[in-house]
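Sample pair:
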Amino acid sequence: MRGLAEVGVPVAALVSASAPHADTGPPLRGVAVLGEVDGPIGAPHTVGTPAPTEADRAVAAAVAALVPAGARIQFGPGRLAAALVAALDVPVAVDSGLLADPVVDLDERGLLRGTPTSTALYGSPRLHDWADRLGRAGRATVRPIEYTHDVSRLTSTPGPLVALNTALEIDLDGQVNVEGVAGSAAGMIGGHPDFAAAAARGPGLSVIALPSAHRGRPTLVERLGGPVTTPSHDVDVVVTDRGTADLRGLGRGERRRALSSLWGGAVAPDG
């Protein structure tokens, strides 16, 4: 909405008295306010997160070992992402596309450095209340997408960026699909390719974390069942409940063999 208003597109809005004070920008001009809402109607949408599985926790423990103290991390929503953040035991900053409930846990555990940034809040009232308290204290967390997803900024900000992204499936070349398989949509692109690219190009690390199997089928495939969300050259390390494959500096054949080995040869590296 802010971007539309700033370029002169007419915007009408309802002011929500229940929404957190989290936006960093100046007051919008030229917005037609139609009224004010409060209570359940005006409250932000609540998104719950299921409890992590044993496989999630195994992946998270391996990922946590890759995150150095003082790093900036990016993570998305979901069960595995929550497990990744819960497994961290070093202080980190959060420079992400979305802020989900695990950032509150980081803060309460004394591991959150500085003020996190994101394009949106995606979680429960606990997250909204936490962001509201920060915003009222002058530490608003929500910024425009032109700031949060700017690859130039992400690669030049002090502190290595460690992008912690999940996936539906990955192929032998390291190409990642997060959008859907077998013609069924399961998600959106979001900031997956932006943050993976920034982490791979800067002094940080682009990590793809996923279980080795989903519903009995390997998540490593010869050919993706959906679009390529993130290209292989923006993937540094792949982590599953079976272990870790460090792809940095490997040639195409070496990458295929490393991924095949990580999945126990579920897909032959030469097809």
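The chain has a mean pLDDT of 92.
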